Amino acid sequence: MTTIKKSFSPLKPSDRIQSLDIMRGIVLLGILLMNINGMGLAGSYGDPTVSGGATGWNLTTWITTELFFSGTMRALFSLLFGVGMFIFLDRLEKKKAGINAANIYFRRLLWLLVFGLIHGYLLLWTGDILYDYALMGFIVFSFRKLPPIKLTLVALLLFSIGALWSYADYKNDIKFVEDLELVKNYKLEGTTVSKELQGVDMKWEKREWKRSPEGIAEYNANMRKGYLDVVAFLAPENQRTDTMNPYRFQLWDVLSMMLLGIALFKWKVLSAEKSYKFYGIITLLGYLIGLSVNYYEIQSIMESNFSPLNFSKSYITYDLGRVPVAIGHVGAIMLFCKLPVLKWLKSSLAAVGKMALTNYIMHSVFAMFIFTGAGFGLFGTFQRFELLYIVFGIWIFQLFLSPIWLKYYQYGPLEWMWRNLSYLKKHPFKK
């Protein structure tokens, strides 16, 4: 009896969907636009008053990114990851891979998890998303065969749970502020403060210290130390995010977008197969709804002089803003893909997208050498708008390097390594 051993290999370049690669390239560059704040400044992701500046061009930069890009780039990155894993598994199953399909799929996710841990702990990026994508990818497996409408309903359910959790957090924050007022009044009256309220007061003082010029200066100094010192300094933060984020945020944030992405792919929205009219409508509706919500949140925060309570309140409607804007971006990108214009730019963006893992990690490598003591030690020295110069420089570098690399090689170096580890087989590297 002869045993036939089947070979299951990754997608050939000719089998790829160009619109997905172009979109992935655009989103990857957009991710850096948001991540650069955490890479180069302390505590600046949301509140511009902490560091980086909150006036002039710095304020304009914050408003623009919050309006158009905050949360939407991560949403689209998650959407594309869900689609990528679905295509990966679907292709294997259509080739009658059987149990091997699941073996390769889960092995691929396990190695992504390892990459994420290395990225966070050793490449010094506490905002790593690969670890979370791997965890959510395990769950995606069970939903992959649902029809688009059911995938969308599950995503909406997850969005709703996230909003309810944010509402509960907001109510707790209101109670926290009220307790702080009690502490203040008790101190003025000379009344003994209970242990519970003492804990509230200590929590507030700790928070204010982190936001103070002294606290920011201390954080900056730690980030400018030698490599091993920075690894040790960031390790507790990485551990905290890896422990808390998957259940507090990523189930409702990342997993929801992965499922929505698969639904949109099954509806043929992401392959640029719909009409110009269709993409025009979802672009206009997405931006109309999403930008209106985002504008309301930004105005509310600014009118409150960037109060922590208003930031907390904005998270309740967070998905009502970022998801429609993300859908608007999808429509605009698909229109760009369909229009017979800027073919050279599309080609460069597609190359960036084909090397998404390599280029994503490259962002952190650049940041590590620019900002931390492993390199130039410039953490905390740039204003918010000045960080854009670094972003644009990396964009230009990757837009030029990626197509040149793919002219001589089949895959990006990390993509090639990931494929070999997933399939337990060495694939050709050079063309």
The helix/strand class is: mainly alpha
Principal-axes shape call = globular
Radius of gyration: 23 Å
DSSP strand tally: 0
Mean pLDDT: 93
**Any low-confidence stretches, pLDDT <50, length ≥5?**
1-5
Strand content: under 5%
Distance between the termini: 37 Å
Summarize the helix and strand pattern as letters: HHHHHHHHHHHHHHHH
Number of domains: 1
The helix tally amounts to: 16
Largest sheet: none
Helix content: over 70%
Description:
The protein is mainly α and 431 residues long. It has one domain. 75% of the residues lie in helices and 0% in strands. It has helices spanning 18-40, 56-68, 72-94, 99-121, 130-143, 148-189, 195-211, 213-223, 227-266, 276-303, 308-314, 318-338, 343-354, 356-371, 387-408, 413-423. Helix 2 packs across helix 10, helix 3 (72-94) packs across helix 5 and helix 13 crosses helix 15 (387-408). The longest helix has 42 residues, at 148-189.
Distinctive features:
431 residues, disordered N terminus
Topology:
Blueprint: H1 18-40, H2 56-68, H3 72-94, H4 99-121, H5 130-143, H6 148-189, H7 195-211, H8 213-223, H9 227-266, H10 276-303, H11 308-314, H12 318-338, H13 343-354, H14 356-371, H15 387-408, H16 413-423
Q: What is shown here, in short?
A:
Helices cover 75% and strands 0% of the residues. The chain has helices at 18-40, 56-68, 72-94, 99-121, 130-143, 148-189, 195-211, 213-223, 227-266, 276-303, 308-314, 318-338, 343-354, 356-371, 387-408, 413-423. Helix 1 packs antiparallel against helix 15 (387-408) and helix 3 crosses helix 12.
